[in-house]
Design a protein that fits this description.
2 domains, 19% strand, 5-stranded parallel β-sheet, Rossmann fold, alpha/beta
Length: 386
């Protein structure tokens, strides 16, 4: 099965990882396209054993996993591997063989069991690759508005109409909360998680406040943290951690919360179409979250943060990549200008460059080491930006 859109960056990353490691874990939320991409790679690889662990027939093949896998030569793909965490010790033994007759591509939805078992038993033998929905780099700059409104889940983005896309997302949220969350190892009441997820959408782009949310739900801070960790672990929520510097200033210590997929955010907020979105008070927060995901997908680093002080200075996104300290501010304005906060962040964080990201097309300097750039150019450029 060929994907409806080529995902050349992800494909290249997986192939490179498989060339270096006996085991590669491709992790991403449900329905983000992991299986489709793996089937494409399997077709190119030639000799492949593809086992979907949600298929009873494929599960039966692994009744005795060591016997089933030990003599296979080629690429072994194990889809929804979180359903069989007991396979990881077997994979460790098979990965240590010399020479290696097979390599393993395991697909998972980032359950706690999957992450814990794989990190403990496959340390030094595996590579991890994150896969979200379609990115702006994959769909093209001309589809930016559609990607923002619908989000990156393939069935939502590629739906035949806005109404069909909205229906798919609504069904997806309900199915995930009622069925998938439990299958991923999170034993939480569905009704409470749905209420929490919807409430969390209203805090999109704000710092986490467990007590305030807990009071609204009538549950403890510890319970709200378990809900947040569940949705974060399933890759539906991003907790953007604060960056600390020894600046002699009081700095924010709680993470910022974002619904990672903009389409799901719009569904949770009841924003069924673009016209409704453009008139909504959360318009700026929606675009900021969308832009942050596109920028993070663009740069090869996991070290991403925000920064804020109690005095009011802040920076939307801070990362270290290529040996440089880079800052990003996101402004839903075609002609952004500098602010006092930007200059404070530039000096206090010793930034090499600060990009002011906007939805327009123009790129131009705003000051020393500060430059305005359109999101489409930043996210899709094949040249080095940072």
């Amino acid at each position: 099965m060929k994907p409806a859109l080529p995902r050349s960056d992800a494909t290249a990353a997986i192939k490179s990882a498989l060339a270096r490691n006996p085991v590669v874990a491709l992790l991403g939320p449900r329905q983000c396209g992991k299986s489709t991409l793996a089937r494409q790679l399997a077709a190119e690889a030639g000799r492949t054993l593809f086992l979907d662990l949600e298929n009873p027939a494929d599960l039966a093949v692994l009744a005795e996993p060591m016997q089933a896998l030990a003599n296979f030569r080629g690429l072994v793909v194990l889809d929804e591997v979180q359903r069989r965490p007991d396979l990881f010790p077997v994979l460790r033994v098979l990965a240590d063989r010399k020479p290696r007759p097979a390599r393993f591509l395991v697909l998972g939805s980032a359950s706690p069991d999957l992450l814990r078992q794989s990190s403990e038993t496959l340390a030094g033998r595996s590579a991890f690759i994150d896969l979200a929905g379609f990115t702006l780099r994959e769909v093209g700059a001309d589809k930016a508005g559609r990607l923002w409104q619908r989000g990156g889940f393939p069935r939502s983005f590629l739906a035949g109409s806005e109404a069909l896309s909205a229906t798919w997302r609504d069904d997806f949220v309900r199915t995930f909360v009622e069925r998938d969350l439990g299958q991923l190892g999170f034993n939480l009441p569905a009704a409470a998680v749905r209420r929490f997820w919807t409430m969390l959408a209203h805090y999109h782009g704000q710092t986490w406040n467990a007590s305030e949310i807990g009071r609204s739900l009538g549950v403890s801070d510890q319970t709200t943290r378990s809900y947040l960790d569940a949705l974060t672990g399933a890759l539906f929520v991003r907790q953007l951690p604060p960056w600390f510097e020894n600046l002699g200033k009081r700095q924010t210590k709680a993470p910022k919360i974002y619904i990672r997929d903009s389409g799901l955010f719009h569904t949770l907020m009841g924003l069924a179409d673009r016209r409704t979105l453009l008139a909504h008070p959360k318009l700026g927060a929606s675009w900021e979250g969308f832009a942050i995901e596109q920028v993070i997908a663009r740069f090869p680093t996991r070290d991403t943060y925000f920064w804020a002080t109690h005095a009011g200075a802040e920076l939307d996104l801070f990362m270290m990549t290529g040996g440089k300290r880079i800052g990003f501010e996101f402004k839903f304005n075609d002609a952004p200008s500098t602010t006092k906060s930007m200059h404070i962040a530039l000096a206090d964080l010793k930034l090499d460059h600060l990009w002011v990201v906007h939805p327009g097309l123009h790129r131009h300097p705003l000051g020393d080491r500060i430059e305005a750039i359109g999101l489409a150019e930043l996210a899709t450029s094949v040249t080095q930006i940072a």
